[in-house]
Amino acid sequence: MEHIIIIGGGGTGAAIAHDLVLRGFEVSLFERGELLSGTTGRHHGLLHSGARYAVHDPAAARECISENKILRRIAPQAIEQNDGLFVALDEADLDYKPLFLENCRACGIPARELTAEQALALEPELNPSLKAAVQVPDATMDAWRLPLHFYATARANGARIHNFSEIIGFSQAEGAVTGIRVLDHQSHREYDVRGDLFVNAAGAWAGKICDLAGIQLPIQPGPGVMVAVNDRLTNMVINRLHKAGEGDIIVPQRKLTILGTSIWLADDPDAVELPKDHGPRLIELGAKLVPAVKKAEIHSMWCAVRPLIAQAEAKDPQEISRDFDCCDHKQRDNLEGLISVIGGKATTLRLMAEKIADLICRKTGRNIACKTKTKKLLHYRMFY
Asked: Most CB within 10 Å of its CB: which of 17, 22, 70, 175?
């Protein structure tokens, strides 16, 4: 039985572990800190319908609507199926609406046109001067509970999960990765683990993992700020009906309201500081959609780092695709045994895992179909 080692304890690592054990592999996962302590545990919790990407990134949009439907079935306890509204506030937004609707339908995303009166009846706190709205099947996910469904199921099926276990080096022989050097931050000891294939699922930190192996990866950390305010100001996810930009998403999370998101590009995901002006800007922009935002008490403010695929031709960070890629470093760098997954979104974690597991099956000569589209996950509490 091949031993597959996964590096990175976020949502993607969890989903990969779940998929691989179902296909009969021996699986060990290593995370340098607590599970979900990177980007996964810091995002705003929007389960995308894909509508946000329908116009400028249709591939990502199609992936999102497909995975949206699957996650609602296999992990319903982690998802609030509350739908979303794209709101037009001015004539420019109204001019964008026909293109938005056309592309949503082309991507298979249900989109229902609403009058201003209908939208306000659904969400009374919306800006009363709105012009129109479009309802789409967005939803709210729990950023911690959803991946814990995957971890619980993977571990119940035999996966070994190691947190506070940092990869500090690779062993290589004859052009292939053969093992990892692990620093256990709890016992302060180092040890070696051998494996047959190694999956770099470290998200925005994936470039640092490849550095340890002496190769480069086209990963572009893209930090963004989010602000949580007290009180649940809407029941649905609220988006601005225009080209994707900063400060145009409002996500209700239990008794809080999350305002998102800014974006800039960084070199080192471990050296990101929260810009002082981003919070006030997000509040100002969020208040255009929901005026009550301006009077709400700030609960917290934080940063998350997106694991974007580097694209030299993209001048605007918003234009960088949210699609993902699986890199077999044998093909890319002539280094056997190491695979990296980069890009993607929390909504597509299961699909990313499926593509990685398909690649591993091809490399190991196995012909085993993916089972994760239909298999219901154990409840997240089972992890404990």
From this structure: 17
